[in-house]
Automatic annotation (TrEMBL):
<dbReference type="InterPro" id="IPR018777">
    <property type="entry name" value="Replication_initiator_prot_A"/>
</dbReference>
<protein>
    <submittedName>
        <fullName>Plasmid replication initiator protein</fullName>
    </submittedName>
</protein>
<dbReference type="InterPro" id="IPR036388">
    <property type="entry name" value="WH-like_DNA-bd_sf"/>
</dbReference>
<dbReference type="Pfam" id="PF10134">
    <property type="entry name" value="RPA"/>
</dbReference>
Length: 304
C-alpha cells in the first residue's frame, strides 16, 4: 500500500451516497437562521418539546453550520449501510465536504469551515427530546471535539489536510439507535435559511402522507423565524408563487370555504366560525405532483 493509500484509509470521506439527516434536528429549530452573530439564546417550546440553545463565544451555531452535521450524519449512515458500526469520531477532508455542499474551495471557504466548527463545539443545547431511548437533563454541544489539521507551504500559507470531529452522544445515539433518518434533496444547499427550514419541516412531516397542514404562527415558530407574522406570511407567499422548494409545494389557505378548511371543520380541527386575521391562516405542504384530497392529510394545527 502506498503512502497516499495509507493516508486515504484513515479518512471516513469521501461521501459517495446521498445526504442524510436525523429527523429531530430536521423537524425543530435548533439553529440560527442567519450568518450574522447571535449572542442571545434560542428558545422553542410547544406542547411536547422544549429546546434551549445557548451561544458560543462567537455566537449560536447557524443553519449553514448545520451542513457539517448533515455531512457527518451521511458518512455515519453510509457506514451503517455497509454493515459497520460507526464510531463517534470522524475524519474527513475539507475538499470533500465543500464538494458535497456545493461550496467553492477558496481560502475563505476553509476559514468559514473552521469558524463553523468552533460554533458547533461552543454552542450549548438543552432539550427534552430523547435519543436512543435516553434523555439528558444537562447541556451538550453538537461536537465535543473538533480539530483542523493543516500543512504549511513554503510561502507560509496554511493548507487544510483533514478535519477530525467527535459527534455528541445525543446525536450519535439518535442516528445509531432511533434510525429516524431522511434523505435530503441536493438542492437544499442552494436555498436560503427560511426556505431550508420550510423544506425540512415539509420533509420531516409529509413522509407517506398526502399532505401536511399547519397553522401559520405554529409554522413560524417551528421554522425558528423571528419575523412578524405578517412578514413571515409575505415570505411564504413568495415561496408559494415561485414554487421554490425541492420536492414539496406549499399553499397558503385563507378562504373559509376552501376544501382544506371545510375538511378541518368536519374533523373538529377548526372553529365553525371563520377566524379573522393571520391567526386563522393555514399552510398546506404537499409532495410535488400530489393530487390527493385534504382528508388524507396530516394535521398539526394546535394553536393554529
Amino acid at each position: 500500500m502506498t503512502l497516499i493509500q495509507t493516508e486515504l484509509a484513515l479518512y471516513d470521506s469521501p461521501l459517495t451516497g446521498k445526504v442524510k439527516g436525523e429527523r429531530s434536528i430536521m423537524e425543530f429549530p435548533f439553529f440560527h437562521l442567519s450568518k450574522g452573530r447571535r449572542m442571545q439564546p434560542l428558545v422553542f417550546t410547544d406542547s411536547r418539546v422544549t429546546i434551549e440553545v445557548r451561544p458560543s463565544s462567537i455566537g449560536v451555531a447557524t443553519i449553514y453550520d448545520k451542513e457539517i452535521l448533515l455531512y457527518i450524519a451521511s458518512l455515519m449512515v453510509e457506514k451503517m449501510n455497509r454493515g459497520e458500526r460507526p464510531e463517534q469520531d470522524f475524519v474527513f477532508t475539507g475538499h470533500d465536504f465543500l464538494r458535497v455542499v456545493g461550496a467553492n474551495r477558496s481560502a475563505r471557504s476553509y476559514e468559514r469551515l473552521t469558524k463553523a466548527l468552533e460554533r458547533l463545539q461552543g454552542t450549548q443545547i438543552k432539550t427534552n427530546i430523547e435519543a436512543g431511548g435516553e434523555g439528558e437533563d444537562g447541556f451538550f454541544s453538537w461536537v465535543s471535539e473538533a480539530r483542523v489539521q493543516y500543512s504549511k507551504a513554503r510561502t507560509g500559507e496554511r493548507r487544510l489536510k483533514a478535519i477530525k470531529v467527535r459527534l455528541c452522544d445525543w446525536l450519535y445515539r439518535a442516528i445509531l439507535k432511533d434510525l429516524r433518518i431522511l434523505t435530503y434533496d441536493h438542492r437544499y444547499f442552494t436555498l436560503g435559511p427560511i426556505e431550508r427550514r420550510l423544506y425540512e419541516v415539509a420533509r420531516s412531516h409529509c413522509g407517506n402522507q398526502a399532505s401536511f397542514v399547519i397553522g401559520l404562527d405554529k409554522l413560524r415558530r417551528r421554522v425558528g423565524c423571528e419575523d412578524t407574522l405578517a412578514k413571515f406570511a409575505s415570505t411564504l407567499r413568495k415561496v408559494e408563487e415561485t414554487d421554490s422548494l425541492p420536492e414539496y409545494s406549499l399553499a397558503i389557505v385563507r378562504h373559509p370555504a376552501s376544501p382544506t378548511m371545510r375538511a378541518m371543520r368536519e374533523e373538529g380541527l377548526a372553529p365553525a366560525a371563520p377566524t379573522r386575521g393571520l391567526q386563522g391562516v393555514l399552510v398546506n405542504f404537499r409532495p410535488k405532483g400530489s393530487t390527493s384530497t385534504p382528508q388524507k392529510s396530516y394535521w398539526d394545527i394546535e394553536a393554529a
